[in-house]
Amino acid sequence: MSDAIPFTQSQAINVGAHVCAMHQSPDAVLGVLASAFAAGLARGERCVLVAPEASATEVRRLLRGGGADVEGIEGEALLFLTDRDPLLANGGSEFDPDHLLDAIKGLFTATVEAGYKGLRLSADVPWLTRDVPGGERAMEFEAKADELVNVPGVPLLAICQYRLGDLDPEDSLAILERHPLTLVGGRVHQNEAYISR
Q1: For residues 181 and 22, what is the distance between their CA atoms, to the nearest angstrom?
Q2: Mean pLDDT for each 10-residue chunk of the chain (197 residues)?
Q3: What is the pTM of this model?
Q4: The CATH number fitting domain 20-186, selected from 3.40.1000.70, 3.40.190.10, 3.40.50.300, 3.90.1150.10
């Protein structure tokens, strides 16, 4: 699977991509995300959103508006993980990067075994890490995730969402250093701040 995965109708990026989407409000990125999911679904890929219910509701609405049979595919090709507890360690009480990476690996393996051509995964990282012990380990997770996701030829596209209002400049730089690609204005760009580990 070395061909490109269309990210939007106008742009393609290679499989094995780790993208950072920093935004002012979720709406700024959810429209692009819905387009990316629509393109993935059309290719026979599984699409997964890890985010609060409000974000999932908006992506569902946008996909329906684009003609997707959301009710017919939700729970199979289209997954919305709006309960963060299973993704947190110790019964939902702690953020642990390795626990979350194991969950992603399991999801990817199940996706491939189910016959999908790839996995498009987007996560609201601050939502996962907010107000739980271990939340300060988000950048440790991002560094480890880059090793898992940023592999050419592996059909796994990860889009990490961060709201700019939640970040100080030091956090923003740390996030950029861990993502080879950035989503700006609905387009994916090579990230010159990225530091390969």
Answers
A1: 11
A2: 50 74 85 90 94 96 95 96 94 93 94 94 93 92 87 86 83 89 82 84
A3: 0.89
A4: 3.40.50.300
